[in-house]
Amino acid sequence: MADLRRHQRALLDVALEFEAKGSTERIAGRSRDVSVGGMFILTATPLPFGADLVVHVTMPGQKSPFALPGVVRWSKNGEGMGVQFGLVGARETHAITELTKEA
Hints:
mainly beta; six-stranded antiparallel beta barrel; 44% strand
């Protein structure tokens, strides 16, 4: 099976929280991998396909969490969801790029 991803991925196993756009309820999850294009989130309560969300995660080497906007590109109940990032800042992009260089 061919991997059609545009960006290099890095394994990333850290706790995180996410919230649907317009909601103040944060849901716990765990990252499995990350790239500048997106992230896979392990969660028992994934959001539906197409849902806008914000992922709150502290990357290795960072002192404070990032708030990464995104959209759910696929979702599987009981497993998790694939998130495509929207516009992220330079600091966030640099931190993710550094992680994927090491992969």
